[in-house]
Amino acid sequence: MSQEIRNLEPQALWNKFADLNAVPRPSKKEERVIEFMKDFGAKLGLETFEDEIRNVIIRKPATAGMENRKMVTLQGHVDMVHQKNNDTVFDFDTQGIDMYVDGDWVRAKGTTLGADNGLGVAAIMAILESTDIPHPAIEALFTVDEETGMTGAFELKAGVLQGEILLNLDTEEDDEIGIGCAGGIDITAVAEYDEEPTPEGSVGYTITVKGLKGGHSGMEIHKGLGNANKIMNRILFDGFDDFGLQISTINGGSLRNAIPRESVAEVIIAAVYDEAFVYDMQAVVNEIKSELRTMEPTLEVVFEKLEQTPTSVMPSMAQYYFVRSMYTAHNGVYSMSADFDNLVETSNNIAIVTVGQGKLAVKCLTRSSVETAKMDLATSLQSAFELMGCEVEMNGAYPGWTPNPDSAILAAMLPIYEKMYNEKPNVAACHAGLECGILGVNYPEMDMISFGPTILGAHSPDERASISSSQKFWNYLIAVLAATPVKQ
User: Fold this and answer.
1) Looking at 30, 145, 146, 172, which residue is catalytic?
2) CA angle at residue 53 from 83 to 77, to 5 degrees?
3) CA angle at 394 for the pair 390 and 400, rounded to the nearest 5°
4) pLDDT per position as a tens digit, 319-341
5) Is residue 146 annotated as a catalytic residue, yes or no?
6) CATH number for region 3-182+400-482
7) Of 107, 165, 171, 416, which is least packed with CB atoms within 10 Å of its CB?
């Protein structure tokens, strides 16, 4: 771990982030970070325990003079998205994140950084460890498995938490105060098909879509970023129609909440089309590159001839329906909010596509701040895939977070921000899935707000955290805790 990270200001925050990032913490494999957090609380002599699902809760008494303030629950999730570049050798199960400073940014070498939500968790740890920061009674809630199911929030029972105010430190723009978020649902379409032998006189190719930016499928879905699965399908569609291309395998995307950056397909064509195929398909690739040249300047589509031709392929009729269903399935922004300016209301991310050995699967994450709109788009996707003969499952649904315009902590936070930074913050709902909506089911009276430092490229190896923004976030958090409303 580079010492330059630990030397950054505020050192209390960056040292805790460095400590945390030394601990492997993939979603659904949080055993080590859970023990790390429990040891941290125990060494401070604070009340520390885990609940039934293994969320960790640590409580710290109010500092002198703050005993009459409302108790604050500081909340963040300990798991992180694990993504790496294809040429990066890294084992997320055993290695800590390798970080470095790049101007005003902290980055990781070829992997996700874990600033989502590691910086929020580190800030909470620094508050718990502090001896000179005024604050009310603090209850730290460290949830598990936020990134792949929000399991920790879903399984947190009523009556565990004691706080009246919850500050979720998982927003990724430092001028934003979050008061609402979208809900979501996972959609999985699966089918089986009888593979057929590759026709004689065929040649095989690997088609690779790469070089896309990727990113968070909620916070960055509006940016017009390329989706590797949709780009691949467009290429396969044209190759099928023009050259009788047949699919052997496809592997695209890896996480539902990440816009897919890469897709790889093995295909066959008749040898007679060999030269014309690569030449003509390059024209299709150039069209796609031209369309995406502003947002995806490093997009590459590579055709490589295989030394060994695949021995089996998807039948032409099954492929006919598959590529057309993929074309029909909506990806990206579906509708914008009528109530909040520039807020995506409903969207879908075609996140993962796998084909091979007689099975296919398409996995999507549909989001919306309006429950009925979420289900409308989900039903549209279901219909598209059922028409090709897929079985479609909808699961993993989670609720949105309804804004509370009468929030007492929001009323306290706004003038603090304006005084500190001479401007008004952006009070908004976001299109990401925050845990606040889920936690609010069992804690409906809890006053909730979300904020955090600026983080770009979350859920991708381009993830980076602003150093100056982290300083701003830290100073604001301290000021907000000092101004916590008095108990009623």
Assistant:
1) 146
2) 40
3) 150
4) 999 999 999 999 999 999 887 78
5) yes
6) 3.40.630.10
7) 416
